[in-house]
Amino acid sequence: MTTPAPRIEATDLKRSFGGRAVVDDVSISIGAGEILCLLGPSGCGKSTTLRLIAGVERPEAGRIALDGVTVCDKSTFLPPEQRSIGLMFQDFALFPHLSVCENVAFGLTGKRAEKLNRVKELLARVDLERHINSYPHELSGGEQQRAALARALAPRPRVMLMDEPFSGLDNRLRDGIRDETLGLLKDEGTAVMMVTHEPEEAMRMADRIALMRDGRIVQQGAPYNLYNSPIDKAAAAFFSDINVIRGTVQGGLTRTAFGEFLAPGHADGSHVDIVIRPQHLKLDFDRQGSGPLPTPREGVPAMGRVRRSRYLGRESLVEFEMAFDGSTLQAVVPSVFLPKPGTPLWLMMRRDRCHVFPSGPESSA
Ligand SMILES: Nc1ncnc2c1ncn2[C@@H]1O[C@H](COP(=O)(O)OP(=O)(O)OP(=O)(O)O)[C@@H](O)[C@H]1O
């Protein structure tokens, strides 16, 4: 049996504006029923990549194939309407002079009764049946978004391209609509590429995340892998705040107040950053000036005093001044724990939660 071609296969796409490569050798492959989120800071080239795949922009180099059929390369360029692609943007407005029914039926062909059945089926899925005869101005923002989703999905596109589709919605509405959208897209077997600059949104929606920076994809994988095995310090910092402890390498090891860390591949005398997320620091109470016994897994405990604690609902954010050098570390702990400023506590850095990267300049993704 042969494996089916990916729904979307983009290879080595390039696009420049004013001599600057905005999309630089980007390759993406998405299978049926798979959701890929293209994630990255503002201006890194996400929307341009999406527009290239949609056919709204033309790449300078590269190839795009849908279900194994080339729609764009050096000698081929199919316009967007011939690519069987659904598009959804934040400000992708419904036609104001058409009813919800007419909007959703807009891209459908075939018999009237069949079209009406499809419209009703989709409106039921997005919980808008009672608005079938309403006009867009009679709907709330969230309802308009759901109607737009139904319209985009009505012709059963093989591929759906979404650019920040939920960013205009308030938080309460957003979670529900995201989940409904996810369910619908999965049920229809659509291959989805969604552009977002919000890591939480990408982790919630994506089967796979492609992290983009300065026109390039720097890391791709399941949300779990990007969060837990970031490729560099900036990739780690894109998903949450991070704590950074500097060290110098000697004989493949770097020694810190938290014990020794392996730094294989780093030259003697080079500086490294040991990175840990605030939720992965472990805390322990002070026992008259001593902490827990060091363990191979959790390393050596180091003493810190609480500088301030903030209650965030489900969690507390605790900021420490570390005894060994006065530096600041942050821990996120369940909110049942809200220690007072000045409280001495012991902090531990679990080896399997730490990442060792070469020290370098900060960047945003
Ligand atoms: N038509 C254009 N002409 C000139 N420059 C452009 C054009 N389209 C995009 N750019 C530039 O290319 C860069 C990438 O833009 P793009 O919209 O792809 O980024 P993005 O990652 O989607 O950002 P955002 O999240 O802010 O939408 C930006 O610096 C932008 O100004």
From TrEMBL:
<keyword id="KW-0410">Iron transport</keyword>
<dbReference type="InterPro" id="IPR013611">
    <property type="entry name" value="Transp-assoc_OB_typ2"/>
</dbReference>
<dbReference type="InterPro" id="IPR050093">
    <property type="entry name" value="ABC_SmlMolc_Importer"/>
</dbReference>
<keyword id="KW-0813">Transport</keyword>
<keyword id="KW-0067">ATP-binding</keyword>
<keyword id="KW-1003">Cell membrane</keyword>
<protein>
    <submittedName>
        <fullName>ABC transporter ATP-binding protein</fullName>
    </submittedName>
</protein>
<dbReference type="InterPro" id="IPR003593">
    <property type="entry name" value="AAA+_ATPase"/>
</dbReference>
<dbReference type="Pfam" id="PF08402">
    <property type="entry name" value="TOBE_2"/>
</dbReference>
<feature type="domain" description="ABC transporter">
    <location>
        <begin position="8"/>
        <end position="239"/>
    </location>
</feature>
<keyword id="KW-0408">Iron</keyword>
<keyword id="KW-0406">Ion transport</keyword>
<dbReference type="InterPro" id="IPR008995">
    <property type="entry name" value="Mo/tungstate-bd_C_term_dom"/>
</dbReference>
<dbReference type="GO" id="GO:0043190">
    <property type="term" value="C:ATP-binding cassette (ABC) transporter complex"/>
</dbReference>
<dbReference type="GO" id="GO:0015408">
    <property type="term" value="F:ABC-type ferric iron transporter activity"/>
</dbReference>
<dbReference type="GO" id="GO:0016887">
    <property type="term" value="F:ATP hydrolysis activity"/>
</dbReference>
<keyword id="KW-0472">Membrane</keyword>
<dbReference type="InterPro" id="IPR003439">
    <property type="entry name" value="ABC_transporter-like_ATP-bd"/>
</dbReference>
<dbReference type="InterPro" id="IPR017871">
    <property type="entry name" value="ABC_transporter-like_CS"/>
</dbReference>
<dbReference type="GO" id="GO:0015697">
    <property type="term" value="P:quaternary ammonium group transport"/>
</dbReference>
<dbReference type="GO" id="GO:0005524">
    <property type="term" value="F:ATP binding"/>
</dbReference>
<dbReference type="InterPro" id="IPR015853">
    <property type="entry name" value="ABC_transpr_FbpC"/>
</dbReference>
<dbReference type="InterPro" id="IPR027417">
    <property type="entry name" value="P-loop_NTPase"/>
</dbReference>
<keyword id="KW-0547">Nucleotide-binding</keyword>
<dbReference type="Pfam" id="PF00005">
    <property type="entry name" value="ABC_tran"/>
</dbReference>
